[in-house]
Structure to design on (302 residues):
């Protein structure tokens, strides 16, 4: 166990020494990875900061069931309870609206009060307003429920505007696609940069590697410093990308603060939580170490 730990400490020491031996090249590679990694970090920060704002806006689709004129309020409530029980997994909220309460609300409005005075009776039906839960298949499920409920015997009309739900679904899919492309781009840059760095290091150190093999060094012992070289490059690049993103957000928040204050709000873009950031850095380190392993497998056969 002590020997294993000593070998790993030796490999890390060699990796740090090789990074410091070529400061300009190392700094250039780290800066390239950090700049590319800052893009998904910035996009994630914007999405995380927009989430509380999105909660204040009703984005879940609502289906309104207008009952037939002769259906009393008691039967409307029974139907509401039935729908709630049968579709509990998809219903966020269900509200039964009394036609008398709806008419009173319209009469309270100045634009409708005069027009409603000439009506001999209440023309409004009892209704049920159903809010659908946010799920991956939200739009399709809401459309399916609206079509099924429109055939109920006591229901006269079902009102559901699916166009904006489909647009929202498309926007969310587009956002997820952009983040996926950014993540793939970061992975490609990390792999390419670390691969070439390790390849050059292996060529420069080819005589040292050959001597180590002659004296009995195993392939794991020879390749381990290069793996640490890749992982350390990913670690430093990840930390640098956090600093760059923090500096960029500080400048961006200054302009956003002036704009949001003019609208009487207080909006600030912030970084994701520490767990998310730590996971992102660890993933970059793993990808960089795998790229180093791949490079050594291909370019250390001499």
């Amino acid at each position: 166990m002590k020997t294993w730990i000593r070998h790993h400490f030796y490999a890390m020491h060699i990796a740090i020494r090789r990074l410091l031996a070529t400061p300009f090249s190392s700094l250039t590679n780290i800066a390239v990875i950090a700049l590319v990694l800052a893009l998904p970090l910035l996009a994630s920060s914007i999405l995380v900061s927009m989430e509380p704002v999105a909660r204040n806006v009703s984005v879940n689709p609502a289906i309104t069931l207008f009952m037939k004129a002769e259906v009393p309020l008691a039967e409307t409530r029974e139907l509401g309870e039935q729908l709630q029980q049968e579709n509990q997994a998809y219903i966020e909220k269900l509200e039964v609206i009394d036609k008398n309460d709806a008419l009173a609300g319209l009469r309270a409005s100045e634009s409708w009060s005069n027009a409603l005075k000439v009506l001999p009776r209440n023309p409004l039906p009892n209704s049920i307003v159903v809010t659908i839960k946010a799920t991956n298949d939200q739009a399709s499920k809401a459309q399916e429920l609206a079509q099924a409920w429109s055939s109920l015997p006591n229901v006269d009309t079902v009102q559901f505007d699916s166009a904006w739900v489909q647009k929202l679904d498309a926007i969310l899919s587009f956002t997820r696609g952009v983040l996926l492309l950014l993540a793939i781009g970061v992975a490609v840059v990390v792999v390419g940069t670390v691969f070439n760095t390790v390849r050059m290091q292996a060529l420069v150190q080819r005589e040292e590697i050959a001597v180590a093999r002659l004296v009995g060094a195993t392939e794991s012992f020879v390749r381990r410093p290069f793996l640490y070289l890749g992982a350390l490059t990913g670690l430093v690049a990840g930390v640098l990308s956090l600093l760059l993103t923090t500096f960029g957000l500080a400048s961006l928040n200054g302009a956003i603060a002036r704009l949001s204050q003019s609208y009487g709000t207080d909006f600030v873009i912030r970084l994701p939580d520490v767990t998310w950031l730590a996971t992102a850095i660890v993933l970059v380190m793993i990808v960089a170490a795998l790229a180093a392993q791949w490079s050594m497998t291909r370019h250390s056969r001499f």
Notes: The chain is about 70% helix and 10% strand. The chain has a mean pLDDT of 77. The longest helix spans residues 219-262.
